[in-house]
Specification:
By secondary structure, this protein is α/β, with parallel strands linked by helices. Helices cover 21% and strands 28% of the residues.
């Protein structure tokens, strides 16, 4: 297996292989270009984004600034929106469904690192390169979710469709469909039901 194949499979890999270095450098350059392009130049921003995130549907809008490790390992569904400072470390696949809204300062983090420093610290390879040992796990977010500001989503997390994740939450593990969840660690508070429909919020409508 190549180092990229190992990485995407969630196995221990060398993040400083020549292939992965080139992919990261390209993504970081495209992020910088996107962040330096004004909103009113929508055509240029779209061209940059199409090269950075090759698997995205129509209606995707990233406010910026954005920060992706690779971009090409992230899949964005239609009508996806992310506010300021959207960060995605996609060393494993990140899959986001349709109609997902993301607040400011949200981080999606697929990497993991060994707990013991003896395994985690930088070392020199046989060919003289400096690198370390990393691995990761994919992250999936279903359709019709709202991820509020300052949420951190950790490696291996699965957020079901129709969920609302409260501000400042740290998500690990699985959140069932149609859940209101928040906290650190993020926990399900209750199910989102018909009684949460806007028509019942008369104080907001009058």
């Amino acid at each position: 297996m190549t180092e990229k194949e190992k990485m995407l499979a969630g196995k221990i890999y060398d993040p400083n292989s020549s292939e992965l270095l080139a992919l990261r450098q390209k993504a970081h350059r495209l992020c910088k270009m996107y962040n330096d392009t004004f909103e009113e130049d929508a055509e240029t921003r779209e061209k940059i984004l199409a090269e950075l995130i090759t698997d995205k549907q129509e209606g995707v809008y990233l406010q910026g600034p954005i920060f992706f490790d690779y971009g090409v390992f992230t899949k964005l569904g239609k009508n996806f929106y992310a506010n300021f400072n959207f960060t995605v470390l996609d060393v494993c696949p990140v899959t986001i469904g349709d109609n997902v809204f993301v607040g400011p300062n949200v981080s999606i983090l697929t990497p993991k690192h060994p707990l013991r420093p003896q395994d985690r610290n930088i070392y020199k390879t046989e060919d003289g390169r400096m690198t370390d040992r990393e691995y990761g796990a994919p992250i999936t977010i279903g359709d019709n979710c709202w991820i509020a500001g300052n949420v951190t989503i950790l490696a291996g997390a699965v957020i079901g469709s129709g969920c609302v994740i409260g501000a400042g939450s740290v998500v690990a593990g699985r959140i069932p469909d149609n859940s209101l969840a928040y906290g650190n660690p993020c926990k399900v508070i209750r199910e989102i039901t018909e009684q949460d429909a806007l028509k019942y919020k008369q104080n907001l409508l009058s």
